[in-house]
Design brief:
There is one protein chain. This protein is mostly helical. It has one domain (about 5-75). Helices cover about 60% and strands about 0% of the residues. The chain contains six helices and no strands. It has helices at about 5-15, 20-30, 35-40, 40-45, 50-60, 65-75. It is globular. This is Mobile element protein.
Length: about 80
């Protein structure tokens, strides 16, 4: 789905319920962050410490957010310091 960990991280960060604790749990289980996008819900659920309501919102967002649009929007407004 996404070529880089960066894009997968941005996508996960925009899912409701996915704070840094959730993302940290996912990174511990899969440092490439490919599992959330490929695992079936029953296999993914134990990796994510969310309530049932938060899980439902997270899983919906995981499969419906247009992260490419978000990345384009952010890249046109962010200043990169190097």
């Amino acid at each position: 789905m996404y070529d880089t960990v960066r894009d997968r991280l941005i996508h996960l960060h925009h899912c409701r319920g996915a704070g840094w604790k959730t993302i940290h749990s996912l990174l511990k289980a899969d440092p490439t962050l490919t599992a959330p996008f490929s695992l079936p819900p029953n296999d993914l659920r134990p990796l994510i410490p969310l309530s049932d309501a938060q899980w439902t919102a997270f899983f919906h967002d995981l499969h419906s957010i247009d992260v490419q649009g978000i990345v384009k929007s952010l890249s046109s407004t962010l200043t990169v310091f190097s």
